[in-house]
Write a structure and sequence with these properties.
The chain is an all-alpha fold and 277 residues long. 79% of the residues lie in helices and 0% in strands. The chain is elongated and about 90 Å long.
Length: 277
Amino acid sequence: MTTPEVRAKAALCKEAEGVDIGSVIGAVLAVAAVLAGVFLGGGSLGALFDITSVLVVLGGTLGATILAFPLARILKLHTIVMKALFFKATDPSAIITDLVKFAEIARREGILALENHTEEMSDDFIVRGVKMAVDGTDPELIQQIMDTELEALQDRHAQGKSILDTMGRYCPAFGMIGTLLGLIFMLSNMDDPSAIGPGMAVALITTLYGAMVANMFTGPIGDRLAARDAEEVLVKTIIAAGVMAIQSGDNPRVVESKLLTYLPPAERAVFEEKEAA
Protein backbone atom coordinates (compact mmCIF):
# COMPACT_ATOMS: atom_id res chain seq x y z
CA MET A 1 0.00 0.00 0.00
CA THR A 2 1.42 3.39 -1.02
CA THR A 3 2.08 6.22 1.40
CA PRO A 4 -0.90 8.36 0.23
CA GLU A 5 -3.20 5.35 0.61
CA VAL A 6 -1.89 4.71 4.13
CA ARG A 7 -2.39 8.37 5.08
CA ALA A 8 -5.91 8.41 3.59
CA LYS A 9 -6.85 5.20 5.41
CA ALA A 10 -5.51 6.57 8.70
CA ALA A 11 -7.48 9.79 8.22
CA LEU A 12 -10.67 7.85 7.56
CA CYS A 13 -10.16 5.72 10.66
CA LYS A 14 -9.45 8.79 12.75
CA GLU A 15 -12.58 10.49 11.46
CA ALA A 16 -14.71 7.40 12.05
CA GLU A 17 -13.50 7.22 15.62
CA GLY A 18 -14.07 10.94 16.17
CA VAL A 19 -17.67 10.80 17.33
CA ASP A 20 -18.25 13.95 19.33
CA ILE A 21 -19.81 12.97 22.66
CA GLY A 22 -20.96 16.57 23.14
CA SER A 23 -23.13 16.34 20.01
CA VAL A 24 -24.71 13.14 21.26
CA ILE A 25 -25.38 14.60 24.72
CA GLY A 26 -26.84 17.78 23.25
CA ALA A 27 -29.17 15.89 20.90
CA VAL A 28 -30.34 13.57 23.68
CA LEU A 29 -31.01 16.48 26.05
CA ALA A 30 -32.96 18.42 23.43
CA VAL A 31 -35.17 15.44 22.54
CA ALA A 32 -35.58 14.49 26.20
CA ALA A 33 -36.68 18.03 27.08
CA VAL A 34 -39.39 17.97 24.41
CA LEU A 35 -40.56 14.48 25.40
CA ALA A 36 -40.67 15.53 29.05
CA GLY A 37 -42.80 18.50 28.10
CA VAL A 38 -45.18 16.22 26.23
CA PHE A 39 -45.65 13.68 29.00
CA LEU A 40 -45.61 16.12 31.94
CA GLY A 41 -48.16 18.22 30.11
CA GLY A 42 -50.49 15.25 29.87
CA GLY A 43 -50.13 14.80 26.12
CA SER A 44 -49.19 11.88 23.91
CA LEU A 45 -46.79 11.44 21.03
CA GLY A 46 -49.59 10.28 18.78
CA ALA A 47 -51.34 13.60 19.15
CA LEU A 48 -48.24 15.37 17.84
CA PHE A 49 -47.98 13.42 14.60
CA ASP A 50 -49.70 14.64 11.48
CA ILE A 51 -48.50 13.50 8.06
CA THR A 52 -49.90 16.58 6.30
CA SER A 53 -47.92 18.89 8.58
CA VAL A 54 -44.77 16.85 8.00
CA LEU A 55 -45.17 17.15 4.23
CA VAL A 56 -45.81 20.89 4.37
CA VAL A 57 -42.84 21.69 6.63
CA LEU A 58 -40.22 19.25 5.38
CA GLY A 59 -41.31 19.17 1.76
CA GLY A 60 -41.72 22.93 1.57
CA THR A 61 -38.37 23.60 3.26
CA LEU A 62 -36.54 21.15 1.03
CA GLY A 63 -38.15 22.58 -2.10
CA ALA A 64 -37.32 26.15 -1.15
CA THR A 65 -33.74 25.20 -0.31
CA ILE A 66 -33.30 23.43 -3.66
CA LEU A 67 -34.64 26.56 -5.32
CA ALA A 68 -32.14 28.70 -3.41
CA PHE A 69 -29.02 26.60 -3.98
CA PRO A 70 -27.56 24.44 -6.77
CA LEU A 71 -28.74 20.85 -6.54
CA ALA A 72 -25.16 19.54 -6.43
CA ARG A 73 -24.58 21.38 -3.15
CA ILE A 74 -27.86 20.14 -1.68
CA LEU A 75 -26.89 16.54 -2.45
CA LYS A 76 -23.77 17.02 -0.31
CA LEU A 77 -25.79 18.15 2.71
CA HIS A 78 -25.30 14.83 4.46
CA THR A 79 -21.52 15.24 4.32
CA ILE A 80 -21.88 18.68 5.93
CA VAL A 81 -23.94 17.21 8.76
CA MET A 82 -21.47 14.35 9.23
CA LYS A 83 -18.55 16.76 9.38
CA ALA A 84 -20.30 18.89 11.96
CA LEU A 85 -21.28 16.01 14.24
CA PHE A 86 -18.76 13.22 13.73
CA PHE A 87 -15.47 14.94 12.91
CA LYS A 88 -12.84 15.22 15.61
CA ALA A 89 -10.65 18.28 15.22
CA THR A 90 -6.89 17.94 15.38
CA ASP A 91 -5.24 18.94 18.65
CA PRO A 92 -3.27 22.16 18.01
CA SER A 93 -0.76 21.18 20.71
CA ALA A 94 0.03 17.95 18.86
CA ILE A 95 0.53 19.88 15.62
CA ILE A 96 2.91 22.29 17.36
CA THR A 97 4.89 19.36 18.77
CA ASP A 98 5.22 17.85 15.29
CA LEU A 99 6.27 21.13 13.69
CA VAL A 100 8.92 21.72 16.35
CA LYS A 101 10.25 18.22 15.72
CA PHE A 102 10.47 18.92 11.99
CA ALA A 103 12.19 22.23 12.74
CA GLU A 104 14.80 20.31 14.76
CA ILE A 105 15.37 17.92 11.84
CA ALA A 106 15.71 20.80 9.39
CA ARG A 107 18.10 22.60 11.73
CA ARG A 108 20.23 19.50 12.30
CA GLU A 109 20.21 17.82 8.89
CA GLY A 110 19.06 20.56 6.53
CA ILE A 111 15.60 21.28 5.17
CA LEU A 112 16.05 18.75 2.36
CA ALA A 113 16.03 15.98 4.97
CA LEU A 114 12.33 16.67 5.68
CA GLU A 115 11.44 15.01 2.38
CA ASN A 116 12.26 11.69 4.02
CA HIS A 117 9.84 12.35 6.89
CA THR A 118 6.62 13.12 4.99
CA GLU A 119 5.07 9.81 6.13
CA GLU A 120 5.29 11.05 9.72
CA MET A 121 3.31 14.19 8.94
CA SER A 122 -0.25 13.86 10.21
CA ASP A 123 -1.78 16.58 8.03
CA ASP A 124 -1.59 16.87 4.24
CA PHE A 125 -1.39 20.64 4.67
CA ILE A 126 1.98 20.16 6.39
CA VAL A 127 3.14 17.84 3.61
CA ARG A 128 2.28 20.33 0.87
CA GLY A 129 3.94 23.21 2.70
CA VAL A 130 7.11 21.26 3.49
CA LYS A 131 7.40 19.99 -0.07
CA MET A 132 7.22 23.52 -1.41
CA ALA A 133 9.89 24.59 1.08
CA VAL A 134 12.11 21.63 0.12
CA ASP A 135 11.71 22.45 -3.57
CA GLY A 136 13.02 25.94 -2.91
CA THR A 137 9.77 27.76 -3.65
CA ASP A 138 9.85 31.48 -2.92
CA PRO A 139 8.67 32.12 0.67
CA GLU A 140 6.14 34.72 -0.42
CA LEU A 141 4.67 32.27 -2.91
CA ILE A 142 4.46 29.53 -0.25
CA GLN A 143 2.63 31.92 2.06
CA GLN A 144 0.29 32.98 -0.73
CA ILE A 145 -0.55 29.41 -1.71
CA MET A 146 -1.21 28.32 1.87
CA ASP A 147 -3.32 31.41 2.57
CA THR A 148 -5.34 30.77 -0.58
CA GLU A 149 -5.98 27.17 0.44
CA LEU A 150 -7.06 28.34 3.89
CA GLU A 151 -9.46 30.87 2.39
CA ALA A 152 -10.90 28.18 0.11
CA LEU A 153 -11.46 25.96 3.16
CA GLN A 154 -13.34 28.77 4.93
CA ASP A 155 -15.44 29.41 1.81
CA ARG A 156 -16.47 25.74 1.62
CA HIS A 157 -17.46 25.72 5.27
CA ALA A 158 -19.38 29.00 4.86
CA GLN A 159 -21.29 27.55 1.90
CA GLY A 160 -22.28 24.50 3.93
CA LYS A 161 -23.38 26.61 6.87
CA SER A 162 -25.40 28.89 4.59
CA ILE A 163 -27.52 25.92 3.49
CA LEU A 164 -28.32 25.03 7.09
CA ASP A 165 -29.00 28.66 7.98
CA THR A 166 -31.36 28.99 5.03
CA MET A 167 -33.23 25.84 6.02
CA GLY A 168 -33.49 27.23 9.54
CA ARG A 169 -35.18 30.35 8.16
CA TYR A 170 -37.56 28.46 5.90
CA CYS A 171 -38.73 25.83 8.41
CA PRO A 172 -40.64 28.20 10.73
CA ALA A 173 -42.04 30.02 7.70
CA PHE A 174 -43.49 26.83 6.25
CA GLY A 175 -44.73 25.91 9.70
CA MET A 176 -46.69 29.16 9.70
CA ILE A 177 -47.94 28.47 6.17
CA GLY A 178 -49.24 25.10 7.34
CA THR A 179 -50.91 26.73 10.32
CA LEU A 180 -52.64 29.28 8.10
CA LEU A 181 -53.82 26.54 5.78
CA GLY A 182 -55.21 24.62 8.74
CA LEU A 183 -57.01 27.69 10.04
CA ILE A 184 -58.50 28.40 6.64
CA PHE A 185 -59.82 24.86 6.31
CA MET A 186 -61.11 24.91 9.89
CA LEU A 187 -62.93 28.22 9.50
CA SER A 188 -64.48 27.08 6.24
CA ASN A 189 -66.11 24.21 8.12
CA MET A 190 -67.69 25.92 11.14
CA ASP A 191 -70.88 23.86 10.91
CA ASP A 192 -69.41 21.30 13.31
CA PRO A 193 -68.27 23.05 16.55
CA SER A 194 -66.82 19.78 17.88
CA ALA A 195 -64.24 19.78 15.10
CA ILE A 196 -62.89 23.25 15.90
CA GLY A 197 -60.65 22.13 18.80
CA PRO A 198 -58.97 19.20 16.99
CA GLY A 199 -58.67 21.30 13.85
CA MET A 200 -56.91 24.07 15.75
CA ALA A 201 -54.53 21.52 17.30
CA VAL A 202 -53.57 20.12 13.91
CA ALA A 203 -53.12 23.64 12.53
CA LEU A 204 -50.66 24.48 15.31
CA ILE A 205 -48.65 21.27 14.82
CA THR A 206 -47.06 22.63 11.65
CA THR A 207 -45.73 25.64 13.56
CA LEU A 208 -44.36 23.23 16.15
CA TYR A 209 -42.62 21.17 13.47
CA GLY A 210 -41.05 24.24 11.91
CA ALA A 211 -39.76 25.50 15.25
CA MET A 212 -38.41 22.07 16.22
CA VAL A 213 -36.54 21.52 12.96
CA ALA A 214 -35.03 25.01 13.08
CA ASN A 215 -34.04 24.91 16.76
CA MET A 216 -33.15 21.23 17.20
CA PHE A 217 -31.52 20.47 13.85
CA THR A 218 -30.52 23.15 11.36
CA GLY A 219 -29.63 25.89 13.87
CA PRO A 220 -27.47 23.82 16.26
CA ILE A 221 -25.74 21.90 13.46
CA GLY A 222 -24.98 25.16 11.64
CA ASP A 223 -23.46 26.60 14.81
CA ARG A 224 -21.53 23.39 15.36
CA LEU A 225 -20.17 23.63 11.82
CA ALA A 226 -19.02 27.18 12.52
CA ALA A 227 -17.18 25.93 15.62
CA ARG A 228 -15.56 23.17 13.55
CA ASP A 229 -14.48 25.76 11.02
CA ALA A 230 -12.83 27.86 13.73
CA GLU A 231 -10.99 24.81 15.08
CA GLU A 232 -9.75 23.72 11.66
CA VAL A 233 -8.74 27.23 10.62
CA LEU A 234 -6.69 27.56 13.82
CA VAL A 235 -4.83 24.33 13.07
CA LYS A 236 -4.17 25.33 9.44
CA THR A 237 -3.00 28.78 10.53
CA ILE A 238 -0.54 27.21 12.97
CA ILE A 239 0.71 24.88 10.24
CA ALA A 240 1.23 27.76 7.80
CA ALA A 241 3.16 29.74 10.42
CA GLY A 242 5.23 26.68 11.33
CA VAL A 243 6.14 25.88 7.72
CA MET A 244 7.20 29.47 7.11
CA ALA A 245 9.33 29.44 10.27
CA ILE A 246 10.99 26.17 9.24
CA GLN A 247 11.57 27.50 5.72
CA SER A 248 13.28 30.59 7.11
CA GLY A 249 15.59 28.42 9.24
CA ASP A 250 14.37 29.58 12.64
CA ASN A 251 15.69 27.91 15.78
CA PRO A 252 13.27 25.17 17.00
CA ARG A 253 12.75 27.07 20.26
CA VAL A 254 11.83 30.17 18.30
CA VAL A 255 9.43 28.10 16.19
CA GLU A 256 7.81 26.76 19.35
CA SER A 257 7.49 30.25 20.84
CA LYS A 258 5.91 31.58 17.65
CA LEU A 259 3.35 28.79 17.42
CA LEU A 260 2.43 28.85 21.11
CA THR A 261 1.14 32.39 20.68
CA TYR A 262 -1.86 30.87 18.83
CA LEU A 263 -2.93 28.92 21.92
CA PRO A 264 -4.93 30.33 24.83
CA PRO A 265 -2.81 30.94 27.97
CA ALA A 266 -4.26 27.90 29.78
CA GLU A 267 -3.45 25.52 26.90
CA ARG A 268 -0.04 27.15 26.50
CA ALA A 269 0.73 26.46 30.17
CA VAL A 270 -0.32 22.81 29.82
CA PHE A 271 1.87 22.45 26.73
CA GLU A 272 4.89 23.92 28.51
CA GLU A 273 4.34 21.66 31.53
CA LYS A 274 4.31 18.60 29.27
CA GLU A 275 7.46 19.75 27.52
CA ALA A 276 9.18 20.33 30.85
CA ALA A 277 8.16 16.87 32.06
